């Protein structure tokens, strides 16, 4: 009992020391600013770690999840004691590792007689556990167990399609929560525009029953269809597994209220001399300084003056010749 209390005090002391640390160089300052909250979030990092006891199947599952999210994931291979996410005080180590690695998603694997091949997926807010979902892994097939043309393998870091098939994802509360977790885990960074040529993978989640979901990973092949939109074919490349829902923990109302706060829209910078009209749209005013025409220096126009005189002289000579009447002889 005394040992556990000392351990908790140690973790809280480490948490406090990291929290109040001030930057002493520009590099450290940039690193802290990178971790600061943002109005538009970038892709979330995932922390993958394991408990005191694991199985070979669960180790393969954690390793392949890490390979699927290699660019945005941190993998701890050492055994970690006293991590019990669903017990009070058992999530302290997870929160400490989340703060240390700047990860907002946690995947924790453990194995016991009561809960074999146990996988816990959790989200954090401000590096505190927000919510958790616990599933059991069954019928696991690794990447190496699938045979296919290696040229069709998805590229690392490509944007995936995610398909959820089954009414359970809309009707069953537990599967709704699991759907949210899988979306956060697999989607990566949210983008507005997408190049279809770069989409080469798909995650397919099928609700087999009210507590079982079949998960598989497929490669996308684009084929000619005779139109602008290509024909797509799915090639299963693995891994695949059955996720059996066991238990979950929803966020408490206080933490949910804080996490759901949205930042106020920043006031747009005022444009000078610009107004908007319902009919004309955007209207701008242009101010021109007073022009003093009399004081403006004129260029030398001697050549032009000579030409004007010459033209005027020719015009006058033509008029004079036209006005003269021919002499008539009288007999």
TrEMBL record:
<dbReference type="GO" id="GO:0019843">
    <property type="term" value="F:rRNA binding"/>
</dbReference>
<keyword id="KW-0732">Signal</keyword>
<dbReference type="GO" id="GO:0005730">
    <property type="term" value="C:nucleolus"/>
</dbReference>
<dbReference type="Pfam" id="PF04427">
    <property type="entry name" value="Brix"/>
</dbReference>
<keyword id="KW-0539">Nucleus</keyword>
<dbReference type="GO" id="GO:0000027">
    <property type="term" value="P:ribosomal large subunit assembly"/>
</dbReference>
<feature type="signal peptide">
    <location>
        <begin position="1"/>
        <end position="18"/>
    </location>
</feature>
<comment type="similarity">
    <text>Belongs to the RPF2 family.</text>
</comment>
<dbReference type="InterPro" id="IPR039770">
    <property type="entry name" value="Rpf2"/>
</dbReference>
<feature type="domain" description="Brix">
    <location>
        <begin position="44"/>
        <end position="254"/>
    </location>
</feature>
<dbReference type="InterPro" id="IPR007109">
    <property type="entry name" value="Brix"/>
</dbReference>
<protein>
    <recommendedName>
        <fullName>Ribosome production factor 2 homolog</fullName>
    </recommendedName>
</protein>
<dbReference type="GO" id="GO:0000463">
    <property type="term" value="P:maturation of LSU-rRNA from tricistronic rRNA transcript (SSU-rRNA, 5.8S rRNA, LSU-rRNA)"/>
</dbReference>
<feature type="region of interest" description="Disordered">
    <location>
        <begin position="297"/>
        <end position="331"/>
    </location>
</feature>
């Amino acid at each position: 009992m005394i040992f556990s209390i000392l351990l908790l005090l140690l973790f809280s002391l480490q948490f406090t020391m990291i929290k109040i640390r001030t930057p002493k160089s520009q590099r450290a300052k940039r690193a802290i600013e990178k971790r600061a909250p943002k109005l538009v979030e970038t892709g979330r990092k995932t922390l993958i770690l394991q408990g005191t006891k694991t199985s070979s199947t669960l180790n393969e599952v954690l390793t392949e999840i890490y390979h699927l999210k290699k660019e945005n994931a941190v993998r701890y291979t050492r055994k970690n004691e006293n991590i019990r996410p669903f017990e009070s005080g058992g999530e302290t180590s997870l929160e400490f590792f989340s703060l240390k690695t700047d990860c907002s998603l946690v995947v924790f694997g453990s194995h016991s007689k009561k809960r074999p091949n146990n996988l816990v997926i959790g989200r954090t807010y401000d590096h505190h556990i927000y919510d958790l979902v616990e599933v059991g892994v069954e019928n696991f097939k690794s990447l190496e167990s699938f045979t296919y043309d290696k040229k069709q393998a998805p590229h690392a870091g490509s944007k995936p399609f995610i398909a959820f098939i089954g009414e359970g994802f809309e009707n069953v509360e537990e599967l709704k929560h699991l759907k949210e977790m899988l979306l956060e885990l697999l989607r990566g960074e949210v983008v507005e525009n997408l190049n279809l040529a770069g989409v080469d993978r798909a995650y397919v989640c099928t609700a087999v029953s009210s507590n079982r979901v079949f998960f598989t990973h497929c490669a996308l092949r684009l084929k000619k269809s005779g139109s602008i939109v290509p024909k797509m074919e799915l090639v299963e490349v693995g891994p695949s597994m059955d996720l059996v829902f066991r238990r979950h923990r929803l966020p408490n109302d206080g933490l949910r209220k804080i996490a759901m706060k949205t930042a106020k829209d920043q006031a747009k910078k005022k444009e000078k001399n610009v107004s908007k009209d319902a009919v004309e749209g955007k209207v701008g005013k242009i101010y021109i300084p007073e022009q003093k025409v009399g004081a403006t220096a004129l260029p030398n126009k001697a050549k032009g003056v000579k030409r004007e005189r010459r033209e005027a002289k020719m015009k006058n000579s033509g008029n004079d010749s036209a006005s003269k009447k021919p002499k008539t002889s009288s007999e």
